[in-house]
Design goal:
This protein is of the alpha+beta class and about 700 residues long. The chain has three domains: about 425 residues, no CATH class; about 140 residues, Pyruvate Kinase, Chain: A, domain 1 (3-Layer(aba) Sandwich), CATH 3.40.1380; about 120 residues, no CATH class. About 55% of the residues lie in helices and about 10% in strands. The longest helix is centred in the middle third of the chain and has 25 residues.
């Protein structure tokens, strides 16, 4: 075995330095909250992203070897499988594994960055780029400790793919054909939505070959094996197919068929539906509408969730620049530096798909900025090393690189120190979910907004109607309706939606082949309810819930999880059921205003945002419009943590109510509809209909009720 060259040793050293730097910076959050017990569960910090509980549920069930039917547990996904493997082989608790996985996996990004720089004969470029990319705002935010999500490898894997493509084209070595194909297979296994980026790489390599190296047969072999790896078929089929193609390309006698193989791969790609997922993604993030409508049947209209997801919204330039490079100045230098780098090394043009996807943030939302972070880090790093090149001595060269590197790293490190995100739930909230786990059966449903779906399934081991992945307008509508309507109507909708959801699962299972063969689109639960109850107008069906409507047979229990924290998003929740399903018209928004920061001067309480309360005259002023108050309610917990209420009716004909939740130091201003909503009546006032609900868990953080019907 030969000794390592000086260049190889330096490469490994730079990788180690950048990797440990990335890990060390991510540990800052850990030490900031080291003594904060509210963020801990089972003696370990909890994760800080809702979606993480989805993968955690899958890993938990893999390790347990069992999960219930139709529980939507992701036991077949890569993130859950890899997590289960780590939890099985490592001597750490499951909570520790999922907490620290993002730190170590995301820090692997430094390896392809430095290897790419090595191909450009500029290792210092790689070190500076790796340091910056590893902690860039956007990359750090989505790969920090506890951010247990697919993002921990979603940029690492395409950067490895970029490295293998660059080295393939520069060296024309056969081994990079198989490495590139395997990169794609692993990337697709980890992140099934990788289609668009893979196809972008393919298109750019084709363009690069036609412009700069059109007679090189190797490039077309590379394109062919990539396309076979990208087919929209099972990975267990693509893997042997890729191996077979690689074997053929290694045989001299088959060289003349390379173009034919490339043509065949392209035909197979489109025949396998390879472009379909890309179009679906574009429609979801770029061509999104306010409402979505069914294609057949009643043509119901639903409010689109994409309009309420912050990561899919438009962002200003300074935020866009900060998230990619840490500072506007650094961003501008990065863009200029990358243009110069691509001019000097045309091979770096192959990184454009990552930049393009990152810049899609301007229309698709801030989640995409993460893709541009590592590539544009090359840009500013190249400028730094180019400036250093003109220094007369090695010492000055080193000091120049060090000084400029610290300058671009500083705003990112400051961001890390200031980015003190909380865990998804605090320990008291998790105790409620743990208690619920001991009460509810695994087949029971818990009604809650989709933000809480994954944590509920993980900690309480129950089923939910909506969650972080299942939250289209058609499934959100019934849950929004339940939470924001009176108890009797909400109770009926809960029983209907749960039983129709289970009936839908059964129908899909029994007719799987028929649905697949004929590409059938199933009607929403609401449409099914409407039709089966003899209505052609869903508005009429919803009105019928006020009558003695016949409900389906009860097959399982239903619980309502009502957290205090949902107060911050109540109006967003309500929007999903404030749409006329028949014509897409939005109804007038209900009045719901929560003030946690107010000021009292004698009888006047200023609640902020142009709202003030006159205690003496029992009136409220909203945007200079004075109106009488119907009820003034004060709630408080006594020493036994029992809720006490003081209700004063000031004007029975008025429409506005005021609730002062003294223990929370919070004022609520509500119209009559919101006051009578299930959420307010059960959570805030604990005024529940005992013929419909049973109180199960009562806590200042959240309340749980069991449906009796």
């Amino acid at each position: 075995m030969g000794t390592l060259t000086k260049e190889t040793k330096l490469t490994l050293l730079y990788m180690a330095v950048a990797f440990f730097f990335s890990v060390a910076v991510r540990m800052i959050w850990y030490y900031q909250f080291a003594d904060y017990e509210a963020f801990k569960f089972n003696g370990q910090f909890m994760i800080n992203t809702n979606d993480g509980y989805f993968w955690a549920e899958g890993a938990r069930d893999i390790l347990a070897g069992v999960h219930q039917e139709n529980d939507l547990s992701p036991t077949t996904t890569a993130a859950s499988q890899l997590s289960a493997l780590f939890a099985y082989i490592l001597p750490f608790s499951f909570e520790s594994v999922i907490l620290f996985m993002p730190i170590f996996l995301s820090s692997l990004i430094v390896i392809p960055i430095i290897l790419i720089a090595k191909s450009l004969d500029n290792l210092e470029l790689g070190l500076v780029a790796a340091l910056l990319a590893s902690i860039g705002h956007s990359y750090y935010n989505r790969t920090m400790i506890g951010y247990y999500d697919t993002d921990m490898l979603n940029i690492v894997l395409p950067m490895f793919l970029l490295w293998s493509i660059i080295w393939a084209i520069k060296t024309n070595e056969d081994k990079y054909l198989i490495i590139t194909a395997l990169d794609i297979l692993v990337y697709r296994w980890w992140y099934p939505q990788s289609y668009a980026l893979e196809l972008s790489f393919f298109g750019l390599i084709l363009l690069y070959s036609l412009v700069f190296d059109r007679k090189n047969l190797y490039n077309y072999k590379l394109l062919a094996i990539m396309m076979f790896a990208m087919l929209n078929i099972d990975g267990f089929i693509r893997f042997p197919l890729v191996i077979a193609v690689f074997y053929i390309f290694r045989q001299e006698k088959f060289q003349k068929y390379s173009y034919h193989i490339l043509a065949a791969s392209i035909v197979l790609f489109f025949a396998s539906g390879g472009f379909d997922p890309i179009w679906s993604q574009l429609k979801g993030y770029v061509f999104k509408d306010a409402v979505t409508a069914g294609e057949e049947g009643l043509k119901l209209h639903f409010y689109s969730v994409m309009q309420t997801v912050r990561e899919a919204g438009h962002i200003p330039f300074n935020v866009f620049a900060d998230r990619i490079s840490g500072h506007v100045v650094t961003f501008i230098a990065s863009v200029a530096g990358f243009i110069y780098l691509a001019y000097r090394h045309k091979i770096m043009l192959l990184a454009l798909p990552l930049i393009g996807l990152g810049f899609l943030a301007s229309v698709g939302g801030l989640r995409f900025t993460i893709y541009a972070v590592p590539v544009l880090a090359f840009g500013v790093a190249f400028l730094i090393t180019e400036i250093a090149r003109f220094m007369p001595t090695k010492r000055l060269k080193f000091l120049t690189i060090a000084a400029f590197s610290l300058a671009v790293l500083y705003p990112n490190i400051v961001h890390v120190q200031d980015y003190k995100v909380p865990t998804v739930f605090n320990s008291d909230e998790v105790k409620i979910l743990e208690e619920l786990k001991g009460i509810a059966d695994r087949e029971d449903y818990v009604v809650a907004w989709w933000d809480y779906g994954y944590p509920l399934r993980y900690y309480s081991d129950v089923k939910t109607l909506i969650d972080g992945g299942k939250h289209s307008g058609e499934v959100n509508f019934p849950v929004s309706f339940m939470l924001t309507n009176p108890q009797d109507i909400s109770a009926k909708m809960a029983r209907l939606d749960v039983e129709y959801t289970e009936k839908r699962f059964k129908f899909i299972k029994e007719n799987e082949e028929l649905i697949k063969d004929k590409n059938l689109t199933l009607f929403s639960n609401i449409e099914q309810m409407t039709k089966e109850h003899g209505f052609s107008d869903t508005n009429d069906f919803l009105l019928s819930l006020q009558t003695d409507l016949k409900l389906p047979e009860k097959t399982r229990d239903i619980y309502f999880y009502l957290p205090y924290r949902m107060m911050d998003i109540y109006q967003t929740v309500e929007m999903f059921s404030s749409i006329n399903l028949m014509n897409a018209e939005m109804k007038n928004r209900s009045l719901f205003y929560a003030s946690k920061s107010f000021k009292q001067e004698q009888n006047i309480v200023n609640l902020g945002n142009g709202i003030s309360l006159d205690l003496k005259s029992a009136t409220i002023t909203i945007n200079n419009q004075k109106a009488p108050i119907k009820r003034f309610v004060q709630t408080m917990y006594d020493k036994d943590m029992k809720l006490q209420k003081d209700i004063k009716v000031a004007d029975s004909m008025a429409e506005i109510n005021v609730i002062y939740m003294s223990n929370y130091n919070t004022f609520l201003v509500l119209d009559e509809k919101t006051y009578n909503s299930l959420y307010v009546q059960l959570l805030v006032l604990e005024e529940y209909d005992r013929t419909l609900f049973e109180e199960v868990i009562t806590s200042p953080q959240a309340k749980v009720y069991k449906l009796k019907i």
